[in-house]
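User: Before I run my own analysis I want an independent prediction to cross-check against. Here's the chain; please return only the structure tokens and, at the end, one sentence I can use as a sanity check.
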Amino acid sequence: MTVEINPKLYVKDWNHMSELFQLVGWDKRSPKDIKQSFKKSAVVCIIKMNNEIIGFGRTVDDGKYYALLVDVVVHPNHHKKGVGTIIVNTLTEHLKGYNFITLTAAPNKEGFYQKLGWKKQKSAYIIPKDQKQHNDHCE
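Assistant: Structure tokens:
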């Protein structure tokens, strides 16, 4: 397993990245949009096995005060093997010193983040884009 930090310009198969989002049950994302969002991210962590991407995550931040972990995705065949932990810990390490480091967990993945020391916020809010997002993320 290899860990690559900020390989934004070196991802050759954005279609594969799109497929990984779908494999974990997320909405379809176009390869072009994924590439554009990754290039605008502050930190990107990609995990490869046998030269194939099996997981990734990225951050969006203002460079000092606020940072957000987003798109933490691990191929289902590699769940519960430490890949997600490596991604989250690597990204978090790059964000030391920020006042707020946050994330929105995918539905039913809260326990994974709690095991890594993340705490649930008392006052986080969202404006849902649709009914599915409302059902998945709102009380």
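Sanity check: The longest strand covers residues 52-61.
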